[in-house]
Write a structure and sequence with these properties.
Number of strands: 6
Number of helices: 6
Structural class: alpha+beta
Strand content: 5-15%
Oligomer: single chain
Order of helices and strands: EEHEEHHHHHEE
Length: about 210
């Protein structure tokens, strides 16, 4: 689980819950005894210190602020709530509450009605999109270049986005979709529209009901 928080000043805080499982991909298993919490913490700390990318001659690295908190069973719920808070927090705080739409051209960027600080962040993402391999920054420029998801897309964890896209395309084209192991609890059927109206004769007896629309 991960979440990226855009602060008002434009910096990004990144929260992640990292779990170390065993080598068996088909069932949940414990890691080897030598893979301790201390080892996982050391690996994460080393990764943040060494990993970097180069963009237009500039080195992009993790910042100096790093806090690693060990979670036990009793703190899992608190950690889930903490991450959920930032997973549902939008970047609108940086744009003074304004919901920004997708920018599709430089002209749209120039005419965008948004705070100057937010526009500069969008412009920076648009310029980054000129670099080979970073074209996606333009698609998500209205989100300051970040188009990530809060949930993992691991093939071993759950269904992939590619599989979902293929299923939607098959449904639109009228092709049968493999339901796999889907459990059907019930089916919905069209019953009609409107509401029943009672038909009564002159002496007030109910002769039946019909459905009608108003």
């Amino acid at each position: 689980m991960k979440a990226a928080e855009f602060q008002r000043r434009g910096t990004v805080h990144y929260q992640a819950v990292i779990r170390l499982d065993g080598p068996d991909k088909h069932v949940l298993s414990d890691p080897p005894a030598r893979c301790t919490v201390a080892l996982l913490e050391r690996v994460v700390r080393n990764a943040t210190q060494r990993v970097e990318v180069s963009a237009n001659g500039q080195r992009i690295r993790w910042g100096r602020e790093l806090e690693i908190v060990r979670l036990d069973t009793g703190e899992v719920g608190r950690a889930a709530g903490y991450v959920a808070k930032y997973a549902t927090k939008s970047m609108e705080v940086t744009a003074d509450g304004l919901l920004l739409r997708r920018v599709r051209s430089w002209r749209e960027l120039l005419s965008l009605e948004a705070p100057e600080h937010a526009k500069r962040l969008i412009e920076a993402a648009w310029r980054v999109g000129r670099i080979d391999g970073l074209e996606g920054a333009r698609r998500w420029a209205h989100q300051f270049g970040y188009g990530g998801h809060t949930l993992t897309k691991s093939h071993d964890y759950s269904v992939t986005f590619g599989a979902l896209r293929e299923a939607r395309a098959a449904w639109r084209n009228g092709r049968p979709v493999d339901a796999g192991t889907v459990i059907t609890r019930g089916r919905l059927a069209y019953a009609g529209r409107g509401h029943p109206l009672a038909i009564r004769n002159d002496d007030g007896r109910n002769l039946g009901k019909v459905r009608g629309s108003r």
